[in-house]
Task: inverse folding
């Protein structure tokens, strides 16, 4: 056959195949979209089931290795580390946050790295939960959850890792309880100083001026209202997350049309869209606390904040701490998240600026290298080390650092992970 004719024929066959694939994927997207959603597929054991909070334990996968989003394979470490890792998601989102896709699952990744991996499930709040405030989550539910993890794991010492509000709730828990058995705390894109720039600062400043005028000239006080009336409906939570990257919310549909033939992309797009479009109610008590004490009064930035009838002393937290911030995060930019480094007096703490926006920093394709892998390595190093007596010099010197991981670390291969272990 003439080479040119063969080339034209091959291209025609390839185009025909893509057209058939696009038709099949388009039919599923329109009429059987649940078949495309791949979130929440990792098996777990329900350790505690309350109202609304529950605790999950993610067992090691049965296979010898797991597949990562970049195509690499991660061998499973069967000998588990001694300290359980408790993942703390934000409020207003589903538990699929940390189990978004089979190749992009934080719970599966951490279990494969050898951690006894637990997840706090905040449940699906309804109207009757509208009164719940930050103290209910940061003190009462966190205390209950950690108690259940300690009972199930047999270990008193634990590590915490929270994204966004999950990191903030973890900080407040530590500030209230000063739990000496929480040895490591990792926060990812957690807001601290709401005068530090970004979208959160804009909202806080917009609220601050009228709030100060109302306080000065009227007797109206937001915290005196019935908190249930202030609950944010699910659609508002969805809107808030989409506003962190409004352009992508539109362009992703164009990407879907142009790549409708690609099954893997269609599954990823459908799963992410399902996650964003199924956000949860935000309890009014939390909205009340965040609006008055965090947004208007900016108390987190001072190191002390009153939560219900307790005071959370962030400036007394002494456990090892690792803080991540997304370099393109418009909601919680690095300048807002980094403030915690000046507040927490721990002598072992580090701050990393990593690729990604507010969601991409923990859920994106680059999060595995920039955040998950770094966090796992950091925890393993501390899990293996034994406590050392502090010298006078060490007590007055903090190992604080602000680091942007180099490109070679961001692109680190899976085999190097195992070599370090």
Result:
């Amino acid at each position: 056959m003439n080479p040119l004719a063969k080339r034209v024929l091959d291209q025609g066959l390839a185009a025909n195949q893509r057209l058939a694939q696009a038709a099949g994927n388009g039919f599923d997207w329109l009429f059987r979209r649940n078949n495309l959603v791949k979130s929440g597929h990792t098996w777990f054991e329900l350790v505690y089931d309350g109202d609304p909070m529950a605790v999950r334990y993610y067992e090691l996968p049965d296979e010898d290795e797991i597949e990562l989003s970049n195509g690499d394979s991660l061998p499973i470490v069967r000998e588990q580390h001694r300290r359980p890792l408790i993942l703390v998601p934000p409020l207003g989102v589903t538990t699929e946050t940390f189990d978004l896709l089979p190749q992009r699952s934080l719970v599966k990744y951490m279990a494969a790295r050898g951690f006894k991996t637990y997840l706090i499930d905040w449940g699906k709040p309804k109207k009757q939960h509208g009164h719940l405030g930050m103290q209910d989550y940061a003190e009462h539910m966190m205390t209950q959850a950690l108690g259940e993890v300690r009972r199930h794991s047999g270990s008193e010492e634990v590590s915490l890792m929270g994204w966004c509000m999950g990191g903030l709730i973890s900080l407040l828990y530590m500030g209230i309880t000063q739990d000496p058995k929480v040895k490591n705390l990792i926060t990812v894109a957690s807001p601290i100083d709401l005068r530090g720039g970004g979208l959160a600062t804009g909202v806080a400043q917009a609220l601050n001026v009228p709030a100060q005028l109302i306080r000065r000239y009227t007797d109206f006080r937001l915290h005196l209202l019935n908190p249930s009336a202030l609950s944010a409906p699910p659609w508002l939570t969805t809107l808030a997350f989409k506003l962190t990257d409004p352009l992508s919310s539109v362009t992703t549909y164009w990407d879907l049309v142009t790549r409708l033939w690609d099954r893997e992309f269609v599954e990823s797009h459908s799963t992410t869209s399902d996650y964003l479009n199924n956000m949860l109610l935000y309890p009014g008590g939390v909205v009340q606390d965040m609006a008055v004490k965090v947004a208007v009064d900016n108390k987190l930035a001072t190191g002390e904040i009153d939560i219900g009838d307790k005071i959370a002393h962030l400036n007394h937290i002494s456990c090892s701490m690792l803080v991540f911030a997304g370099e393109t995060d418009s909601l919680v930019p690095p300048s807002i998240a980094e403030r915690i480094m000046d507040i927490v007096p721990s002598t072992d703490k580090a701050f990393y600026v990593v690729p990604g926006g507010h969601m991409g920093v923990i859920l994106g394709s680059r999060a595995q290298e920039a955040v998950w892998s770094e966090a796992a390595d950091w925890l393993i190093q501390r899990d293996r080390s034994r406590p050392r007596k502090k010298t006078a010099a060490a007590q007055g010197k903090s190992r604080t650092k602000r680091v942007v991981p180099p490109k070679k670390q961001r692109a680190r291969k899976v085999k190097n992970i195992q070599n370090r272990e």
User: Anything to note?
Assistant: The two ends are 56 Å apart (CA to CA). The chain has one domain: 34-384+397-420.
